[in-house]
Structures are given as C-alpha cells and as structure tokens.
C-alpha cells in the first residue's frame, strides 16, 4: 500500500470525529425544535430520528475501521538524540548529591562535636592561655554554635543533594527520545532517557495518550499525558517530526478520557 494511502486513515479519523460531533449537536438541536414547534408531527420526528441514527451508525463503523489501520512497518513519528547531554546531566546531579551529602556529614560529625567541646572548654578553664586559643575562633559563625541549627543544616544539606539528584532523574526519565507508531496502528512505543544517557522504552495504547500542547505554538516544548502515569512527558521541538501529519492525528490529539 502506498504511503499516502496509509497516512490517509488517521486524517479521515480526525475529520470523522469532527463530523460526528457536529451531527450530534445538530440532532439535539433539531429534537428540541421538534418538541417546541407544533408543526412537526410525531411521524416526521420518528423518521428524522431513524435517519440520523442510521447515519451515526455508519459513521461509527467507519471510525472503527480507521482505528484498525495497519501499516507495513513501524513508523518513527518523532526523534531527538541527546545522549551526551543527559550523561553530563546525570554526572552533574550525582556530584551534587555527593557534595551535599558530604557537607551534611561534616556538619554533623565534625562541627557539632567541635563546638560542644569548645563551649565546655571555655566554661571550665578561663586562663589567659585558653582565652588566646579561643580568639582563633572569633570568626567562626555564632549561629553554628546552636545544636538545633547544626542538626537543621545537616538535614537541609542532605535534602538539597537528594532534591538535585531527584530533579535530574525525573527530567531525564520524562524527556522523550523517540516516538514510534507500531504497525498495528493502535499502540505506540515511547523511548525516554535514563539519568546516565541510555534509553528505556515502553509500549502504551494510543487511546491512553493525550497531548496537552501543539508542535505549532511558540513554546520550546510541549507535554503529553499517559493514562495511569503520574508525571507528564516532554517533547522538545528542536527534535525532528519525521511524520508531522501522522503525528498530529495520532499522538497530537487531546483525548478527554485520559
């Protein structure tokens, strides 16, 4: 089958969705007119409903045929290769985790015992020699002498490192590397990055994907949602849309049931 004919199915599906919605609106409007206007008889209303029901049934059958459109091979809809960037991002976030964890350890294991010993030594021995030793610590921040402040800073430092690492991991796992439409036309393969630059993939039904943006607006990226997934997935517009029309009629649709 030629490529143009294979791509015609999703386009027909989009137009048929619009036509069915307009038919439903017209049916409701005409039924209300039939009930409000006395010039329409019950027979004419019954004939009208029979005709419109037959039209909707035919439209539904056509929609089901377009949903089962099959292709000769898998089709790559979108691709953006940035493995090097995410390797650097993973190393940067890991270094932040190590640095802030070490700061938390230093705060709890060294500074806290040192300040406690310094305070005890200052209270017990007030000789001139000891006072000269204490002058060496006059530039030491006084707020670090409080044990509660030391514990709070230790926990905050550890939390800062975990936050940096968690944010980097989520950003990598939710950035799309490739979108592939499977040949049966009903599922897509979503490939994303891992925190250290490699790729992971999973397959989801196309009906469970809802796009919340457009590739034609001015934003640098847009997101889409997958049913039963907690976070959104990001598509960078600097990537290549290899099949833009097919992308708009499959992944690029907003589905209200997701």
UniProtKB/TrEMBL annotation:
<protein>
    <submittedName>
        <fullName>Uncharacterized protein</fullName>
    </submittedName>
</protein>
<dbReference type="Pfam" id="PF06979">
    <property type="entry name" value="TMEM70"/>
</dbReference>
<dbReference type="InterPro" id="IPR026100">
    <property type="entry name" value="Tmem223"/>
</dbReference>
<dbReference type="InterPro" id="IPR045325">
    <property type="entry name" value="TMEM70/TMEM186/TMEM223"/>
</dbReference>
<dbReference type="GO" id="GO:0005739">
    <property type="term" value="C:mitochondrion"/>
</dbReference>
